[in-house]
Each structure stands twice: as structure tokens, then as C-alpha cells.
Amino acid sequence: MAGPLVGYRVLDLSRILAGPWLGQILSDLGADVWKIEKPHTGDDTRHWGPPYLKGTQESAYFLSANRGKQSICIDLATEEGADLVRSLARQADIVIENYKFGDMKRYGLDYETLRLIKPDIIYCSITGYGQTGPMKNVAGYDMAIQAISGLMSITGEADGRPGGGPQKVGVPISDLLTGIYSATAVISALLHRERTGEGQNIDMALLDVQVASLANQNLNFLTTGNPPRRYGNAHPNIVPYQVFETSDGAFVLAVGNDQQFRKFCMAAGLSDLAADERFKTNTDRLRHREALIPLVSDHLKHATSEHWISLLEPIGVPCAPINKLDQAFAHPQVVHRGLRIDLQHASGNSAPLVANPIQFSRTKIEYSSAPPMLGEHTDQVLTDALNLSIEEIHRLRQRGVIYSWNAEAVGATQNEAVGG
Questions:
Q1: What's the pLDDT tens digit per position in 186-210?
Q2: What residues are labeled active site?
Q3: Closest CA to 61 of 75, 51, 74
Q4: Distances (CA, A) of 54 to 59, 162, 341, 355
Q5: How far apart are alpha carbons 24 and 33 in whole angstroms?
């Protein structure tokens, strides 16, 4: 069976990452995703390189978030362009946009306008701070969201330690989480529509998502009134749960409960710690963290990371090597799960990509195509979805309303076909 969203159409007006991440998830699940891009320049991330796909000027960043989409270049700032997009909205089930507050209304592409022509449309707006509130007009960027949400206050080494101070996460986590939360919202809205026939407007804010995603750290604060501090690679609620140095590097030891702690101590030759009243329970270990960690740390430095992992993993003590990405993609479990995929790109090259992590038993994910070239599908979609003629597409291209990939070659063929 094909993906669960086969037959649904998504009009994706978004760019950069949060919106495109949502669009890619929906595409992976089987939906047709029409990615509307600005003529000639397209999504900003197309140019966020190097690195680029071999033989192209398509950035690796763009490739990461735009698999399986159809690129259609339309100038929204022209009335004809906005009319084309409204016509596509009539054919769509879902609209995604992440423009600044109010921009879509200027183009006549806001929810209130589109629901008049498509009453059951599901419309997902993604902004930095939402459609309401004192910061609704402020542009949102991932790092700013990581800062204002409190995430950077709990990420990084503690003040006063080498390298101490606030740190951002190594990927744009606020954008990615917003894309994932938005996918949940859109699919829930589809289910609601199936039951009631009603569409709806979804207001997603990066700040809301990032605050909500602080999870246990939020409740550490809300239950005590004390803002959590940075612990570096240690855990605020579990001990020992952090990075430990070894004789040849470092590894992660993630002891999650008292039984695991006893098993760790007995296997590692630290049975005296298991019997110590200061360390019997996790509550005890939290209270005496400063006494316990140096004892464990000094002991683990006397053997290699591989030694400790091979000793602890078979007995159910959570631990792991700290891999670089080349090691991660070569790991037998990652290879077995098929997380790397390669798809043929329109440039003629093979594009290395990362699979969607969802594993269905029946509605298997099928990867239809690599991320598109800019305007690769403009003519195809306008012909198939809107029944535009070759002559009309040529006229729109000549007026700069639309752009097609390899437009010169396509234009020559079309001119010949229409006698001119």
C-alpha cells in the first residue's frame, strides 16, 4: 500500500526550514507537494553553501528539507501570479506558509481569503512568535528562538568552567521541532475535516514550540521557582548520566535507575559505590553528585571506550560511543535501518539523502523524487492542475510572472510548437 496521504495536495508557500520540513514530512507520507518559489532565486537555502551537490549549485542545506516536492516558480507580487496561486489553492487540501505576519493578506493569499474559495482548506501559518501578541510582527530566526525560549540557558557548560556559557544546539532545533509539531497539527486537522467537512486555520509559532519542548526542564522550574542551570553533558535529574573520559577518548554513560547503577558498579569494579549509603538511590546520587562523579570519572579513565561499552551494553547498562557523522552512518544499526537513501537528481547526479524515520507496517513510505531544481515542475503543474495552454505558459514566462527550469530550451521547443 502507498503512503497514508496519497491523494492529498499541499500548496507549500514556505521557505528556509520550519515550513519546508513540514512539507517534506507530508511528501514522505504520500502527499503531492507544490513548492511555490520566487522566480530566479527561489528558496533562500538553495544558496546556503558550500557544500553543494556535486556538479550543481544546489546546496546541501536545501537538499535536506525538500525531497519529493514539485518546484513551481511564481511571482506572488504580481496580480497574475497571485491569481495563479489562488487557483492552485482551489485544487489543494493544505496550504503552508511562513511569511511574516500580514504578508499573505497583502497578496490575497491569507486564510480568510482562501477559505472563501476553498471552504475546507487546512491552512498552516508558521511564524517566529505567532499571529497574536506583542511580538507578532517580529521576524523569527532559530537561534533567536533558542535564546529567548530559555533553551540556551540550559545548554552548554556551566559558567566558570572551561568553555562555559550559553550554547545553541548543533542543528536548528526550533525550526525542526516546529515542522514536526506542525505535521501533527495538519494531520489532526485532516482527520477533523474527514469527520466534519470543516477546514481550519493553524497558528504555529517557533517560540511556542520551543518553550513547550523544554519538557522536564520546564517543570523543574515550575515546581520550584528556580530556573535550571547548565550542566554541560550531565543530566539535571539523573546521576550518573553524562559523558565520561576514557583512556582513548570519551563515551556516554546513561544510568537511568537504581538497578542499572548497581549493575554498572558491579561490572565496572566499583562495588563499594553500590554499597555506599550516599549513592543508594537516584535522589541520594543527585544530592551527592559532587562526591560521586569524580570517583566514577577517575576509574573510567583507566580503560578504553570500547572496553566499557562492550562490558556494559550486554548487561543492559545504557551507554554509547560518541560518533562523528561518518561513524554514525557506518554504524551497523543505522545501515540496517536504511537511514541513508540515494535518489536520482534532475541534474543527472545521485543525491544522498536521509530517510524519514517513520516505519509503517503497511503504508510504506516511497521516495518519489530528489529535491527539485528551481522551477523544474512549473510547466507540468500549471498544465496538469490548471489546464493552462502552452501559449499561456509562454506568455506568463515572457512577462516574468513564472519561471521554468531550463527555460531557454523549453521556450525554444514551445516557440516552435506554436509557430513563433
A1: 999 999 999 999 999 999 999 999 9
A2: 175
A3: 51
A4: 10, 39, 16, 20
A5: 8
